[in-house]
Amino acid sequence: MLFYLGEIVMKILSKRQVKELVLYSPQHTARLEKAGLFPKRVQLGPNRVGWVESEVLEWLELRLAQREVLN
User: Is the pLDDT of residue 71 over 70?
Assistant: First the structure.
């Protein structure tokens, strides 16, 4: 799902897309989110949530950076 904010295009990821991208179960992602360790979801409707793609990708980039520091 794409949102246009002026000249900025914001892509929203579904729960399934987040699961495929980060390889965590939805339950684990929810635990990380609740602990403040994963980007917050966006309420799109009464029964629909999503995550801002750029925030999830930034989270993944931080994981990669931590890997480089630890090795």
Answer: no
